[in-house]
Amino acid sequence: MLAELHCHTTHSRGTKILYEGLNTTEQMVRHAKKIGMGAIAITDHNTTKGCHGLKRLSKKYGIVVIPGEEISTKAGHVLALGIEEEIPPRLSLDETLDRIMKQGGISVAAHPFDIRRKGAGTLAIKCDALEVFNSINLERITNWKCHRFAKKYNKPVTAGSDAHCISMLGHGVTSIQADNDIDSILKAIKNGKTNTIEIYTPSKIIMEWSIKRLKLSYAYVIRYMNRNYSWPKRAVGEKLLGLAEKSPGNIDYLFRVLAYFSLGSAMVYSAVRTVLGVK
Q1: Are residues 88 and 101 in contact, defined by beta-carbon separation less than 8 angstroms?
Q2: pLDDT 10s per residue in the chain (279 long)?
Q3: Nearest one of 47, 81, 102 to 190, comparing CA atoms
Q4: Which region holds residue 94: left if phi is over 0, alpha if psi is between -120 and 50, else beta?
Q5: What is d(CA 258, CA 235) in angstroms, rounded to the nearest whole number?
Q6: Cα three-residue angle 50-55-58, rounded to 5 degrees
Q7: DSSP code for 111
């Protein structure tokens, strides 16, 4: 079966920009079924609130819906799949993995070598599986590093779209040799009965998602900048935020240029870190 193992709903919230996930759990589940997924895991940031009513949605749409959470441990982000109770953030990696195991779930190291340093790095080896492909890691090198790491240590692998809206779904997909139930899927992942289907999320989709979340978070972001930024950083931030309000329109050409510039910068940064051997 094909599975989407990394996605976020409206329950995922950020610190600088409030809204991260743009669609409800039901919208994500319905669209996953529409594009041919046999299973989807709901993995909101540090909460399981998006996992309420999953059995009803599974029955309604004929798709296996796995409860989960993307947990911000002290070492980096970990996907907990198959858990029922929320696990708090900022615990040590070992304690987090122990709590996942006690609930009968499995752990997947999310984007371990993320250039934003939100992954667990080499400590990812402690997890049950590694997310070797994250479709929004557009600079590509971090995914390449994780593929090599997983092969070196013979670790089970998954892919994830890290989808924050329905248009992001179905890019990082895991093909799993399992029956249509949660226990079978978790066991298959842990035993390495997986293959990855890897398509990078188009930068246009990421740009549109970024603009939408800025619009939804406008008042929150203004307050955040007023509290945390000094001039001129605050003035520049407010100006850029104001430009988002003009989208869609001709301003989107500017956003595309900024998106490509950011991608190029990320690729150079990631390449330099790799050459220098920075973890």
Answers
A1: no
A2: 999 999 999 999 999 999 999 999 999 999 999 999 999 999 999 999 999 999 999 999 999 999 999 999 999 999 999 999 999 999 999 999 999 999 999 999 999 998 878 999 999 999 999 999 999 998 888 999 999 999 999 999 999 999 999 999 999 999 999 999 999 999 999 999 999 999 999 988 998 999 899 999 999 999 999 999 998 889 888 887 887 877 777 777 666 666 655 655 555 555 556 555 655
A3: 81
A4: alpha
A5: 18
A6: 95
A7: S
Domain at 2-202: CATH code: 3.20.20.140
Note the helical H segments in the chain: 25-34, 54-61, 93-102, 141-153, 182-190, 203-216, 218-228, 233-244, 251-276
Residue at 17: amino acid letter: I
Q: Distance from first CA to last CA of the chain, Å, rounded?
A: 34
Cis peptide bond N-terminal to 232, omega within 30: yes
Cβ partners under 8 Å of residue 58, min gap 6: 29, 64, 65
The domain ranges of the chain are 2-202, 204-276
C-alpha span between 269 and 27 (Å, rounded) = 36
Cβ-based burial of 142 (10 A; exposed 0-12, middle 13-18, buried ≥19): buried
DSSP SS3 for 198 = strand
Three-state secondary-structure class, residue 64: strand
Q: How far apart are CA 152 and CA 164, in angstroms?
A: 31
The candidate with the shortest Cα–Cα distance to 83, out of 94, 64, 70, 69, is 69
Whether the full predicted model's pTM is greater than 0.70, yes or no, is: yes
